[in-house]
Amino acid sequence: MSYIRFENISKSFGKNEVLKNIDLEVEKGQLVTLLGPSGCGKSTLLRCLSGLETVTSGKVYLDGKDITNVNPKDRDIGMVFQQYSLFPNMDVAQNVAFGLKLKKVPKEEITKRVEEMVDIVGLSDHLHHYPAQMSGGQQQRAALARAMVTHPKVLLLDEPLSAIDALLRHSLQVEIRRIQKEMDITAIFVTHDQDEAMVMSDVIHLMYKGKIEQSAAPTQMYTQPISKFAATFIGHYNIMPMEDFQKLTGKQADAKDVAFRPEIVEISTQPIEKEGYLTMKGRVFVSLPHGNVLRYAVLCGDKQVDVDVLFKKATLIENNTDVYLSFKEDDCIFL
Ligand SMILES: Nc1ncnc2c1ncn2[C@@H]1O[C@H](COP(=O)(O)OP(=O)(O)OP(=O)(O)O)[C@@H](O)[C@H]1O
Q1: Domain boundaries, the chain
Q2: Nearest residue (CA) to ligand 1, atom 2
Q3: Minimum CA distance residue for ligand 1 atom 5
Q4: What pLDDT does residue 266 have?
């Protein structure tokens, strides 16, 4: 049996069914992400594991035991939330020591374990600082240390980085992943940010309206979405009804929609003819920098197709220029 197992979990608040027959497994030592839009049930599923929420039906197993009705404090689960949940009147050392004191761990051992843990999260210089004296990122590291110092069976991270600015957020993503691997922690991470899920996870569980839409490793999720929703949520796919796609490219397929990523499309002012490639004509109506690429929005018929070109290669095509788009048929996903 897997280390964590949600078996046929449903959860309703009154008439609102928020989780619908969820089956999900997590292996020991994995970091899995629950990814999905706001309100799809990510936090509720996490709270069913921690015991902060009861399930309406189904069972939750942890480390071979049915914990569905176990008191939250006896589940041995560490949690970090979006809000910095440190005790404001305690310094970092006292905050991190808190759980160990509750467990009546001997004093010398507490000091040793707190110092080790604070060192791992890179806060040794802030051992005696209070939360108000630290940045958001430092406070989240302290919260992480506090959640991990007791060696919980599972670490639950509910959007722990969403209040932190982009640059620091990225370095904390990498750091949390490093610590999780180094300490062989089993963790479930909740986010609505696809990039964060891509960086952090062994497996992504994409949720939609209370169900698991797709479960896959990050690269597979990115390159092989199984539904229109998955393609919309991950990878910024161009999605076009098959009827329009057929009119533009001549390609026929037994599908409702076709999805293709902006970065697989070549754009040129000259016709492109290549074996195995599909082409369509269009007109550039705007181009905007997007991270490290230039994104052209091209109108093909009455459909917008986004095309990403690496900045270093880009010679700017002016707005209102007629262009040819081409892409490998193999790179299209027929849904
Ligand atoms: N205690 C509660 N009482 C009533 N409804 C609730 C409660 N907790 C959550 N809900 C509802 O359950 C649904 C799922 O909420 P949940 O917080 O799990 O979503 P989420 O995917 O984590 O969203 P977000 O990314 O915005 O945090 C929402 O419609 C929410 O309003």
Answers
A1: 4-233, 237-334
A2: 13
A3: 13
A4: 95
Pocket test for ligand 1, best of 43, 161, 207 (most atoms within 8 A of CB): 43
User: What pLDDT is recorded for position 277?
Assistant: 95
**All residues at 6 or more sequence positions from 272 whose CB lies less than 8 Å from its CB, including other chains:** 266, 279, 324, 326
Nearest atom within ligand 1 for CA of residue 40: 21
Asked if the interface predicted TM-score (ipTM) of this complex is over 0.90, the answer is yes
Topology match between the domains 4-233 and 237-334: no
H or E element that contains 21:
strand 16-26
Closest CA to 205 of 38, 33, 45, 42: 33
CATH fold for domain 237-334: OB fold (Dihydrolipoamide Acetyltransferase, E2P) (2.40.50)
CATH for 4-233, among 3.30.450.20, 1.10.565.10, 3.40.50.300, 3.40.710.10?
3.40.50.300
Q: What are the two backbone dihedrals, phi and then psi, of residue 31, each rounded to the nearest 5 degrees?
A: -110, 115
Ligand 1-lining residues (CB < 6 angstroms): 13, 18, 36, 38-44, 192
| Residue segments in the chain with a per-residue pLDDT below the cut of 50 | none
Q: State which of 17, 22, 44 you would mutate to test the pocket of ligand 1, scoring each by most atoms of that ligand within 8 A of its C-beta.
A: 44
- In angstroms, what is the span from residue 141 Cα to ligand 1's centroid? 26
H or E stretch covering 80: strand 77-80
pLDDT at 174: 92
User: Ligand 1 pocket: which of 6, 42, 188 to mutate (most atoms <8 Å of CB)?
Assistant: 42
pLDDT at 314: 57
